[in-house]
Amino acid sequence: MTTETQRSEGATITSILLSSTDPERLRRWYVEALGAEADVDGFLQLGPVGILIDSRDDVAPRTAEPGRVVTNYDVPDIHAVVKRLDERGETWVATLEHRDAGLWFATVEDPDGNFVQLIETTPTYWARKAERAGALAGPLDHARIGVRLPAQDLDRARAWYAERLGLEPVEEREGGLRYRCGDTEFVVFASSGRASGTHTQMGFTVPDLDLAVAGLRERGVELEGDIVEVAGHYPSTGASGERAIWFRDSEGNLLGLGEYVFD
Questions:
Q1: pTM (global) more than 0.85
Q2: For 80-106, how does the pLDDT look when each residue is reduced to its tens digit (9 = 90+)?
Q3: 222 — phi, psi (to 5°)?
Q4: CATH homologous superfamily for 13-132?
Q5: How many CB atoms within 10 Å of residue 196?
């Protein structure tokens, strides 16, 4: 297997570009109708894949073949989303229906005529998928994973993540801060408990470890030891190992920083 093949196997789709003659109107629809959140670069976050809406002069005001590319949007409560879109008077391509596979579907048009397919999965779907894969169905098959980091002083932790890592919470509630980093998220929550700090509690993967390390040092982050070489990695990444280093946040949580190594 060549290095080029390995790198392509480890690649991920992180965003979709929607071109429009009226990008502001289209962007506003995704925010207001679907509740998308825009990051600092304008990427609308609808789960792990972001949507970037930009202007082009080689497209028509309305898409000619809306069924060619359909954006699938998984939602936890499709009935609530459909009700909200009905109240807005949105145009339905396919109304809400339940399919035998254990899925709820509904397809709506955005202002440019692009199709957005809403999907809600049910426990039935996950159980049948596990059966098809020859695995036992589990109660958490359709759950989402979330990293939770304890903080004895939430204000101190918030200041540390802002000053040292340049991260601000995208959402907060009493006793909790939610952060988004790339296509993943983590939460720092107020806790009377103390982090053990004896194992890696969260890891960041970066394309250039040396550059990231230099940036952290400039911000005053104290790194533990030197960069080490770790052999082996998961086959899907195409990597043969990684270079890694560790540091702690203000609350003693041990965080890792790594870069894939390709032979």
A1: no
A2: 999 999 999 999 999 999 998 899 999
A3: -90, 115
A4: 2,3-Dihydroxybiphenyl 1,2-Dioxygenase, domain 1 (3.10.180.10)
A5: 11
